[in-house]
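hiii, so i know i said id send this last week but things got crazy w the move. better late than never?? heres the sequnce for the chain we talked about at the cafe, plus the structure i predicted for it. fair warning i was half asleep when i ran it
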Amino acid sequence: MKKILIYTLLLSYILSAENYRMTKPEAWKATSIKDAIAKLYGTSKTIDDPRVKVVLSRLAENGGSIPIRITTTIAAKSIAVFQNANVRALVTVFSVADNTIPDYNLRIKMSQTGHVTVVVEGRDGKLYSHTQEVDVSISGCGGGCGGASNSRPNKQAYRQYAPSRQVTQAYYTPKSTRPMPAPDMTTSNEGYNALSENTFKEVALSPLSTLSTDVDTASYANIRRYLFENKTLPHKDVVRIEEMLNYFDYHYAEPRTREPFAIHTRVGESLWNNETKLLQIGLQTKKPHIERLPASNLVFLLDVSGSMGRANKLPLLVKSLTLLVKELRRKDRVSIVVYAGSAGLVLDRARGDEKSKIINALKRLKAGGSTAGGRGINLAYEVAQEAFIEGGNNRIILATDGDFNVGPRSQKDLETLIEEKRKSGIYLTVLGFGMGNYKDNKAETLADKGNGNYAYIDTLLEAKKVLVTQMSGTLYTVAKDVKIQVEFNPAKVHSYRLIGYENRLLNDEDFKNDKIDAAEVGMGHSVTALYEIVMHSGYRTSKIDALKYQKSELVYSDELATVKIRYKHPEEHTSLEMQKSIHEDEYDIATRDYLFAQSVAGFGMLLKDSIHNKNLNYDKLIRQAKENKGRDEKGYRAEFIKMMEKAEILKGL
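okay and structure toks below
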């Protein structure tokens, strides 16, 4: 695809063009000059006026940049620049101060012949314009045509190798001169799955609770972004309490046997309801020895479409993956596939110790074009399959804002594609970036269908947590299709409700069905689930009659419940099972960790405006979290307390 790149220098008289992004967002999406003018100014009718002076070279070398100077004696309110060789027609808008003579300088990098149109919005309410053609010669490649690939094209006829200038574009200028776009604080175009909060179930009627595990943490980081960047409380569908709980380490002991999990439980008083108790269930995998980890075959599948152009998207993505690259070993391999209007291979199987090659390939990426997500995913799986390492870690890392607006015919088609590809033994990790048009629902679904995990990256510190500190858990799977089933004892427990996991629930009969997909758990990861339970007592009445033909006495009447875990080893197709009985007076979770987990769940309940938070308030939550912060080497718990304090302030506004 041919491109134009606009380089904008810092100028006097300019108020930020981002104001127009906020007030006229549709203008920035228009693909033709006429439509863009109409959406920006309400009409496409302009007057060709010689007072709009555009000075530029009529001939440019392919890939080279040419200067443009814009001046006018018209009393102007704003000046907009458009072109017809890029996916998005509107380039930039200058707000002109009253009683000034505009004199602006731009640089345009062109790779095909096109037209540049300058429109002056006069203070008399009329639109004045001037259009000039720029003829592009075919010689030269400007910034370099070649991708950074370590390629063997004679063996890979199915691939389209991607010149860096062909697969990337948009608002990019040299670091020394470009102003970074302000983040888009609007969230009206973001996409989230609607979730209905779990309710209490009577044990006599529904003694089993069955769910898939979840080690995703995207919701927690997204909530933080709402509070600190957007400065607003998140919509309740943004909040997935299980992902908040699983963001933290509760210091569960590692397994001492060959089984992949150690099961930990504790029962205690509820923070928000003195008539209920809380059951915490924790699963812990073994912590890794990095030097013993198998070789990795990683394919970075990177969204470089126009929607990724902001500072908190592609630039942050590049910095984040650079952190990961610095941790790789010689035996690891990295390929880079990018997709925008088309998909292409930028880097093919670089060794993990070729860090400069990988990082330089990342740094050359720029954003622009529509989002051919389906073609990119297909190519990424082909590349990963060709580089497949037997017994190794074969994984695609998809980095995107989730805005798949071109590609497969529907979201369902995309899900089916991912489900089919996962049979190859290649896992899919999804990293979400950005705001404004962020599609959480799509990103989460892709990770679920691809036997992978999902994280949201809002800061470089979060990238370090996910890709460096927890690299083994993010990238190395120790168990797949991990399911939990809790059977409650009706003689002890009257009713229960699972806190969170609303989109992870399974049918009870699915627990032993090895054909039913469930989540994967990585090396060093832990999983936490909380149940609010109502203990059985003589004065409680059941909504159903006693069953005539069922056993009335229990053999193990002192047990509250039994928790069962089913899982498969990564290379196997048959599940194994482990279990543990739960007693009210036995526990192996430290008090501080247990009480801190309650604070996390309670915060989620307040954000979701839960009907179950009877006596819950921010003061109580913050106080309990501070008292039980405990060991906090990375500062995650301290940050959580600040998030609650911020939410309390926003709630009062």
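btw The domain at 201-288+478-536+554-652 is CATH 2.60.40.1230 (Immunoglobulin-like). thought thatd interest u
miss u guys!!
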